[in-house]
């Protein structure tokens, strides 16, 4: 006579095999149109950020209104953060990106400039 433990193990194995068979049968029945697909790799290069200017609030210089900088290559989307968590959208004017920071971003809260850019 088989012990309960061996019986439970065999039952689990049989259920797993049955489920895998059903999954295979379902996947084999799918119809996929003949389109192109691919996979590949490419180098992701970073940007060089330069000409950084922190624009202080005129009434309270303890608050940073915005940060401006240049990138060495073209970008379509740029965001920046000075506290590492809250990112501001940036706009391009001539060759300078300007990011208006959230209201009341203090100089004291600014720990690093983090720029995320993509083309």
TrEMBL record:
Keyword Signal in annotation: yes
Q: Does the keyword Signal apply?
A: yes
- Keywords of this entry: Signal
What is the designated name of this protein?
A: Uncharacterized protein
Signal peptide positions on this chain: 1-27
């Amino acid at each position: 006579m088989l012990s309960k433990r061996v019986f439970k193990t065999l039952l689990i194995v049989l259920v797993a095999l049955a489920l895998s068979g059903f999954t295979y049968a379902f996947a084999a029945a799918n119809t996929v149109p003949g389109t192109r697909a691919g996979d590949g790799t490419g180098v992701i290069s970073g940007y060089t950020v330069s000409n950084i200017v922190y624009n202080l609030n005129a009434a309270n210089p303890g608050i940073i209104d915005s940060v401006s900088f240049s990138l060495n290559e073209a970008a379509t989307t740029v965001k920046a953060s000075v506290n590492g968590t809250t990112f501001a959208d940036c706009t391009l004017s001539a060759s300078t990106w300007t990011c208006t920071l959230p209201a009341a971003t203090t100089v004291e809260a600014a720990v690093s400039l983090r720029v995320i850019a993509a083309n």
